[in-house]
Design a protein that fits this description.
The chain has about 90 residues and is mainly α. The chain has a domain of about 40 residues. The chain has four helices and no strands. It is elongated and about 55 Å long. It starts with 9 loop residues before the first helix and ends with a helix.
Amino acid sequence: MANGWAPDGAVQDQIDDSVKDAIATARARMPSGPSLLDCEACGEPIPEARRRALPGARTCVACQSARDKRPVISGINRRGSKDSQLR
């Protein structure tokens, strides 16, 4: 189904690109390098099992859970309406 002047499949292409960008952003935020022994946020020890499971761990489970609850705001706007670009 064509959407205005857009070619067939253009909407799905935008969705696919948005998903790929979100995955790339999430991967870039993942820790890398050696894990810390103590949490950089609260100073509590990071359990060895967490350090083995997540190489590059920098926070304990409690601090990471708190960080994960914060909303992530994407700066990408692929919608074509004028209203969406005024935000």
